Amino acid sequence: MIMDGLVCYFAVITTKSDPTDETIRLERYMKITNQKFQEDDYEFYCHICSAHVLESSKHCGRCKRCCADFDHHCIWLNNCIGGNNYK
What is the dihedral of CA 50, 21, 66, 62, to 10 degrees? Predict the structure, then answer.
């Protein structure tokens, strides 16, 4: 019974944690608010997302987004597992 509760708890936490690369969120926010984004600070660019990303990011074809510190796509949680939700 305790194990069932723990499994459900961690499943909810993992799926609620957004593993999207924070650089993408920052770049899109700055474009919306008409602020200047420092593109020169970022070496890597995802042509699928049309955004700058960190070196450790990888584009997930199932989620259709770049995930920071990408590890794998979990079919059980239907979410990418990366740096923000690896626990």
Answer: -130
